[in-house]
Structures are given as C-alpha cells and as structure tokens.
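Memo to structure team: turn this sequence into structure tokens by end of day. - J.P.
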Amino acid sequence: MVAEYWLWAGWIAKVMFYLATAISIGGAFSYLLFFKYQILNKILIKYMFIGASLGILSSIAGFLIQIGSFANSGWLGIFDATFFNILLHTSVGTVQVLRVLCFIAITALLTWKYYKQPAKPSYILRLALAICFLTLLFTFSQMGHVTNLSIFAQGLIILHVGAMSLWMGALFPLWQLSRRIQGISLKDSMHLFGKIAAFIVAILVACGATVAYLLLKDWNTLLTTPYGHGFIIKLVLVSSILLLAAFNKWYFTPRLQYSQFARHLSYAILFEMMLGLSILLVTGYITSVIGIE
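Reply from structure team:
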C-alpha cells in the first residue's frame, strides 16, 4: 500500500479523535452549564455518548493505522502481530491504550447516567469524568512533535487543547439551545456562556500563540515551509471564528428576546461549527500529513 495512503488515513483518524475529545469535554461542560433545561439533558448525554464512542473507534483506528504503516503490506498489515507488540510497548501504544480506556470509562459513566433518574450529576460522577478528561488532555502532550518541547510547552498544549475542546464541543449544545429555548431564558444563558467563553478564548489564544512561537521559531519557517503555509490557513480560520463569535456575543445576544434574532443566531452558530471543523481538519493535516521540520 502506498505510504501516502497511511498518512491520509492517519489524518482522518486524528481529526476524528479531535472531534471526540471536543464533543466529550464540551458536552460535559454544556451539560453542567445548562442543566436546568430538562429538554436538553438527554440530548447532551447522547451527544457525549457519540463523542466517547467516536473516541474509542478513532483511537483504535489510529493505532491500527500506525501498525499498518510500519508493516507496509497493504490493509492486512494492520493485523501484523510483530509490529502490534512492538508499538504496544512504546509511548505510542501507551497513549492509545490510555485513550481507549478513558473513552470506555466515559461511555460507561454516561450509560449509567442516562438510565438513572434525572438528577444533577453527583460529585463522584463529576470527579470520575474530570479524571478521564484530564488524562485525555495529557495524552496530547505525549505524541508528535510536542514531545520534543519543554514540560512548560507541553503544559501549554494541554491547556490549549482543553480550551479548544470546551469551546468547539459546546457549539452543538449552543445550537440546540438556540432552537429549543426562547426569550429571556435564551438571552441569559447565552450571556452566561459568553462571559465564560471570554476566558476560554483568552487561554486558547495565549497558549496557542506561545506554542506556535516555540515550534515555528522564525518567520522563515512560517512563510516558506508547507507547515507554515498550513498554519497561516489555520490562523485565517481561527480569526474568522473569533470574529463570528464576537459578533454573536455583541450583536445577537443582547437581542435574543426577539425570536427572529434567535433564529439568526442558530444559523450563525451552525456556520461557527463548520469553521470549527475546518480548523480541526487543517490542524490534523499539518500535524500528521505535513509535519514540522
């Protein structure tokens, strides 16, 4: 099998993992934030369940794709026992096992919560989910080019991915909220999210900019390498989604007591979701297909 095919397959698996992480973390955040709206509770639990299931599949797929790329014997290479054992005992194997176990645990916790009588999540459930989420975020600092950076930079990666997950993963719940809740309740909820999102975005941008500086090192890398060109595209997309989010916050939110603005906001959030997916696609592409020199 052509080596490039494994790169593309790895890219898809990585983007799916990004999505799974964002859905799980952002979904849990939204569930706690909007718990008082019973109409959303089971929708958000199902949303998180989809994210956790996607996480299991993408983690397993990512590991098998790496085995196949090493075996270099076609698609059946993913079942190569020799390379399976070799990779399983490396940091790559450890990370993938951790990811699968975390998502299995999240799935089990969500299943238990779904069939339980509606009640605010207990502190034990919150703690268990928090441990799973923190472990997932930690794995981002243990793979790829960031492993060559300092512990400080790896910590920034964890914060950056965590902030990204909170924001991106909350977009679908916000979209559902804008379609199911009306009037002052919607306005107050969006205003509350906007205040929290301001801190999330600040962390996201500050950590992302610092890590980018550490990785790119100079303007020449940014302007003359494929990784740099991909990063510029990502910057354009990030700038676009930030501008759209700011517009939603300052224009739509103060007017949400009027139904037509709630409808317009739902369309804007839908577009924001598409921009978010584009950012994840570009991020996965430059980190798995291109790579930094």
